[in-house]
């Protein structure tokens, strides 16, 4: 029997890993998770895996992780990011290493992490596969699609969420906007404390990045989130809510910056407003703006076709109103870019990954 261990560096890897883990388990594989200690977050990760019915172990750092794998000798280890080069020693012991990038956004790290010699990288779409093959001709890439989205397209009701607007205290007669800001660069601090009052005709589901909740440097973001949470038309997804998928299913429109979630939401053929304004740390301003450029990738150009662009907080309300009145305006672009960035959206990406692991 093949054994597969998923390497969970961060809690937000789980939505990508879980559909595949369930598929592998169903196919008869021994499946478990290795968690890297995250202060305040690890109990949430453990609770999530308990509820999903998976076993797990915990390590404090990469060195402990490597020793754990060397002792356990699994058939496969699945990573959500590139590990230290020392992990190639595991391959010398016959352990195979797979890579499922935890997002499909425009950051340059999406590509450069394939410098690590994984036995296979599972890729989302032929366009990105071709680009990766050009950059790394000696690596193996398999186009399987974006497994994270399987629950939204699968016919398996066990994968579907039971969340409703009523269950989170929102008005089902109002259009619903999902605001999914990242932690850096973020648009959160650009909005006023009374922003929900300005948008009172809409429900707001706000799901910040985990770091906005947990990192000391983002205290100003938390202060705004706390202020917004007092409004009746706002629901803020708590830190222990590790998946955005149920909220994506409920929402009519998404607000976000240049992040992976934009491509995920667009795959549902729903409109997106791109918040193209950010609160940037001093070390990324002025003469240091090149650092911001290094964080982002040329795929940023896709956002102009995919989204309605808001260049300031004042433009957001009009852009939201336009998108909700014209939900099909960019439908053709969404379908084209989804094929390029997410690949197949048939609910069977996890099956393709499982088939590959079983065959290798």
Automatic annotation (TrEMBL):
InterPro entries: Glycerophosphate_synth, TagF_C
A cellular component term, taken from the record's GO annotations: membrane
Pfam families: Glyphos_transf
GO terms for MF: CDP-glycerol glycerophosphotransferase activity
Entries under Gene3D superfamilies matching the protein: 3.40.50.12580
Record protein name field: CDP-glycerol glycerophosphotransferase family protein
Organism, scientific name: Brumicola blandensis
């Amino acid at each position: 029997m093949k054994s597969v261990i998923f390497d969970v560096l961060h809690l937000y890897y789980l939505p990508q890993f879980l559909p595949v883990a369930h598929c592998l388990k169903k196919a008869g594989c021994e499946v478990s998770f290795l968690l890297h200690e995250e202060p305040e977050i690890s109990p949430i990760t453990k609770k999530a895996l308990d509820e999903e019915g998976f076993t797990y172990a915990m390590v404090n750092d990469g060195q402990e992780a490597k020793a754990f794998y060397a002792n356990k000798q699994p058939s496969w280890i699945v990573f959500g990011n590139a590990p230290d080069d020392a992990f190639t020693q595991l391959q010398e012991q016959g352990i195979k290493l797979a890579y499922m990038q935890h997002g499909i956004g425009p950051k340059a790290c999406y590509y450069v992490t394939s410098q690590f010699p994984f036995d296979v990288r599972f890729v989302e779409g032929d366009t990105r596969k071709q680009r990766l093959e050009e950059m790394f001709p000696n690596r193996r890439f398999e186009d399987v699609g974006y497994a994270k989205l399987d629950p939204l397209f699968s016919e398996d009701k066990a994968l579907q969420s039971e969340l409703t607007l009523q269950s989170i205290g929102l008005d089902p007669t109002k259009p619903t906007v999902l605001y999914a800001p990242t932690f850096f660069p973020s648009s959160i601090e650009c909005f006023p404390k009374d922003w929900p009052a300005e948008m009172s005709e809409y429900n707001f589901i706000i799901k910040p990045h985990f770091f906005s909740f947990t990192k000391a440097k983002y205290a100003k973001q938390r202060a705004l989130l706390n202020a917004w949470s007092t409004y009746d038309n706002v629901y803020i997804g708590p830190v222990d809510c590790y998946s955005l998928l149920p909220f994506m299913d409920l929402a009519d429109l998404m607000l976000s910056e240049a992040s992976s979630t934009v491509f995920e939401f667009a795959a549902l053929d729903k409109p997106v407003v791109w918040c193209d304004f950010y609160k940037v740390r001093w070390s990324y301003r002025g003469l240091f703006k090149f650092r911001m450029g290094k964080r982002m990738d040329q795929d940023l150009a896709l956002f102009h076709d995919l989204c309605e662009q808001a260049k300031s907080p004042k433009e957001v309300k009009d852009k939201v109103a336009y998108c909700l009145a014209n939900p099909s305006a960019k439908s053709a672009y969404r379908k084209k870019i989804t094929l390029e960035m997410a690949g197949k959206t048939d609910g069977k990406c996890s099956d393709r990954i499982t088939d590959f692991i079983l065959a290798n």
